[in-house]
From TrEMBL:
Lineage: Bacteria, Pseudomonadati, Pseudomonadota, Betaproteobacteria, Burkholderiales
Species name: Duganella vulcania
Protein name, per record: Uncharacterized protein
Domain of life: Bacteria
The entry's keywords: Signal
N-terminal signal peptide: 1-22
């Protein structure tokens, strides 16, 4: 704390000395970046802009600002498949702190993968006292995308055996490939629109169609 106080006093004394000589202390608008994995990030401080390359962990805006000048660092453009935002120190006045230190954090976008099922009905084993046993189809999304169970009990249209299914979110830009891991022995199910690459929107057009054997 003592060192920080002395540094701040030194910075203010320097600003005062430069002002007495007819000039103002200049400050770099700079900071750190966390999680930038793709290209396309553009930062801005007013009209001063800076494209930031993938993998960068720090930045310095092209133009310095004078003592007492306000700054406000914003994200003008996000990198591909990511969303970035300032999390600390993005605005203020130059010289009110020893140095300008903006913190930017970037996170990977993610979107769900899913679709509809049809023709999935319970077994015909209902009695007066018990309900029919649901039929369940297990789907797998690649080796790391997880698996889900699609059940006839989840049908929103019981006449057609129709309903919806959805996997957990997948990283934007990542490939997906959904296959049938298991299904009841007495039905035959097929999948369509089950492969692709996430491109900025959720996937909801897969179709799981089931028919009796």
């Amino acid at each position: 704390m003592k060192f920080s106080t002395l540094s701040a006093v030194a910075a203010l004394m320097l600003a005062a000395a430069l002002s007495a000589c007819g000039g103002k202390a200049q400050f770099a608008v700079q900071g750190t970046i966390d999680g930038l994995n793709n290209s396309g990030l553009v930062l801005a401080n007013g009209s001063d802009t800076l494209p930031v390359p993938s993998g960068a962990t720090s930045f310095t805006m092209p133009r310095q600002i004078s003592y007492g000048t306000d700054f406000n660092v914003t994200v003008q453009a996000n990198p591909a498949h990511q969303t970035c935002a300032p999390i600390a120190g993005a605005s203020g006045s130059a010289g009110h702190t020893v140095a300008i230190a903006v913190a930017i954090r970037c996170i990977q976008n993610s979107y769900t993968v899913g679709g509809q099922f049809s023709g999935l009905f319970p077994n015909n084993d209902a009695t007066a006292t018990t309900t029919a046993t649901p039929r369940v189809v297990v789907l797998l999304n690649g080796s790391t995308g997880g698996q889900i169970s699609v059940s006839s009990a989840d049908a929103t249209d019981t006449t057609l055996g129709k309903g919806e299914f959805v996997f957990p979110a997948v990283a934007d830009g990542a490939a997906y490939g959904v296959t049938i891991l298991s299904q009841p022995a007495d039905i035959n199910c097929t999948l369509t629109n089950n492969t692709g690459v996430i491109n900025g929107v959720a996937v909801s057009n897969m179709l799981l169609s089931c028919k009796p054997k």
